[in-house]
Design brief:
This protein is mostly helical. The chain has eight helices and four strands. The strands form two sheets. Strands 1-2 form a two-stranded antiparallel sheet. A two-stranded antiparallel sheet has the order 3-4. The longest helix is centred in the first third of the chain and has 26 residues. The chain is globular and about 50 Å long. This is DoxX family protein.
Length: 184
């Protein structure tokens, strides 16, 4: 292994995989973080500024029209006025906040988790398997999961600073190891 490569190894359920990353990979991880963050931020900002976002019609109609296996769940959500009111705020502002968090690299894993969750819902709601099961929503979900897995918030992001912030004379993540699940 050259000095410009980093070895990776992971075992899940008794199955191990290994690989090597070139140090240039860090730039591509940063690019993925910025790309997905900007895409989410822009999408949310457009919804917030227009003030016209309303999920009711989509929830009640689009998944069924697309043949989604979760159409019944989406219809039930769309029939609950309180839930629709929540979604009308949560989707635009969630996209803005997730996008900002990922762009600046703050609470990156938390933001990426919620971004992946939203993309899973969009994947199920926008169900279109005419060209296979992999579409843009699925790919974005994987980008969010990759951003989280690589700890992309530590690459020119605020998570690197927050993790080292001293609490009681010790870095935050040493004092509170659970914080690693939110940062990085």
């Amino acid at each position: 292994m050259s000095s410009k490569e980093v070895a990776l190894r992971s075992t899940i359920g008794g199955v191990s995989v290994e690989g090597r990353l070139h140090t240039l990979s860090v730039w591509f991880i940063l690019a993925l973080r910025l790309m997905i963050g900007l895409a989410f931020f822009q999408s949310g900002l457009e919804k917030v500024l227009s003030g016209e976002f309303n999920a009711a019609g989509y929830l009640q109609n689009a998944p069924a029209a697309n043949g989604s296996p979760a159409a019944g769940l989406f219809a039930a959500m769309g029939e609950n006025a309180l839930f629709v009111d929540f979604v009308n705020v949560a989707v635009p502002w969630g996209e803005v906040l997730i996008g900002l968090g990922v762009i600046v690299g703050l609470l990156t894993r938390l933001a990426a988790f919620w971004g992946a969750f939203m993309m899973l819902l969009f994947y199920l709601g926008n169900w279109d398997i005419a060209h296979g099961y992999i579409n843009g929503d699925f790919a974005y979900m994987l980008v969010f999961l990759s951003v989280a897995a690589f700890g992309a918030g530590r690459i020119l992001g605020l998570d690197a600073i927050v993790e080292e912030y001293e609490v009681g004379g010790r870095p935050l993540v040493e004092r509170y190891p659970w914080a690693r699940y939110l940062l990085g």
